[in-house]
Amino acid sequence: MPSQPPADIKFRPQNQLSELVAALDSGTGREVRRMLQTLTPQSIAQLLESSPPRIRQVLWTLVDREVEGEVLQELTDEVRSQILATMDTEEMVAVMEGLDADDVADILQDLPERVMGEVLSAMKETDRARVEGVLAYDEETAGGLMDTDTISVRPNLTLDVVLRYLRRHEQLPESTDSLFVINRKGQYIGLLPLSKLLTTDPGVTVREVVNTDVEPIPADMADTEVARLFEKYDWITAPVVDENNRLLGRITIDDVVDVIREDADHSLMSLAGLDEEEDTFAPVRRTARRRALWLGINLLTALLASWVISLFQGTLDKVVALAVLMPIVASMGGVAGSQTLTVVIRGMALGQIGRSNLSWLLSRELGAGALNALLWSAVMGGVAAIWFDDGRIALIIVAAMVINLITAAVAGAILPVLLRAMRIDPALAGGVALTTVTDVVGFMAFLGLATWYFG
């Protein structure tokens, strides 16, 4: 008979939120607290993020102290910052007690430097040292991602001694699938899988069964590269070392999943020029202020395209059909360019694109763009000829579409590379830059050819 799933497995934030709001409106805070106690920290965090600010603050006051820290580490940076702003130093220290060093570091980085210093000073010396070891590294590197809670052994020990050493621990760190083998200087040698430890003769030494094939992760490696390594090798944990190969800590799969999720959120939100930590229920003023900048940038690019059109006002007045067909040229270029842009940005994110294969990719996109340009420009030329009964207009739109679709393919392949070289996020700025290119080139080609042809 299959085991029963946990009660929280069918958690639906909107259904639960409706029940909680109804309970709050009726003034039964005790009932709300009881309902929250049935949920996991992850589900409570999801519930808080799904709540408007007023309800969010009330719900937070009803969360059990024992799970507040776990809930905090599951929240997005913006929502977490809002909740931390309501707490004093003593409350923060109490909430973070018992959390892993990397999780504490994540929470502290959402605080102003002055408040961060106060919280660190109030911590126990051992806890502070572990957290400061993580804070010494950028949060988007392996060092900022690692947990310093590790179990390491020497190679000269027998497996029997290692087993007795493990039994002295009340519990092992979460996601422990291997022990780290180090020398007397603390330098990483390899891994001792727990499966090997449990199934091998206890009289064998660690040196005889250590796995030296797993390379350690440098502390300064980017977190996205760490995620790719975990995906490639199906790791559960991996060691992190400094420049001298000394073991600093470990990265676990749950931290890598967070990196992957954040990268996916970043890619999605960047399409609209927004922050991946955008709070769905942020106040009106904050939301409007964040979106205003990107809208302003888009307005400038639209004005540029409009200015190009205005240069050919006389031609448009003579041939009204041009105004009808003009958006088609720009739209087709925009779609073709977006296809290439998406493929290239994805390839860059996966580490598949570099100098060695960029020229091949550019040639491929140029060829594909040219084939599609010939196909769809011929189709549109036929439509235009029948629609307006004018072969001249058909030839103009055919030529303009060929020019713009080929330009779009080249721009979609090159722009991400140029933007990254300029230290600008391609996912954030690529779409706007591409739209500007395809609009300007499309209008210029179409209206320029028409002006030349019709005089």
Keywords:
single chain, 455 residues, mainly alpha, 3-stranded mixed β-sheet, globular, disordered N terminus
Secondary-structure blueprint:
Blueprint: H1 13-25, H2 29-37, H3 41-49, H4 53-61, H5 65-74, H6 77-84, H7 89-96, H8 101-108, H9 113-122, H10 125-135, H11 142-145, E1 152-153, H12 159-167, E2 178-182, E3 188-193, H13 194-199, H14 206-209, E4 217-218, H15 223-233, E5 237-241, E6 247-252, H16 253-270, H17 284-310, H18 313-318, H19 321-349, H20 355-388, H21 391-421, H22 426-454
Parallel strand pairs: 1-2, 4-5
Antiparallel strand pairs: 2-3, 5-6
Helix pairs in contact: 3-5, 7-9, 8-10, 15-16, 17-22, 19-20, 19-21, 19-22, 20-21, 21-22
Description:
By secondary structure, the chain is mainly alpha-helical. The chain has helices at residues 13-25, 29-37, 41-49, 53-61, 65-74, 77-84, 89-96, 101-108, 113-122, 125-135, 142-145, 159-167, 194-199, 206-209, 223-233, 253-270, 284-310, 313-318, 321-349, 355-388, 391-421, 426-454; strands spanning 152-153, 178-182, 188-193, 217-218, 237-241, 247-252. The strands form 2 sheets. It has a 3-stranded mixed beta sheet with strand order 1-2-3. Strands 4-5-6 form a 3-stranded mixed beta sheet. The longest helix has 34 residues, at 355-388. The N and C termini lie far apart (83 Å).
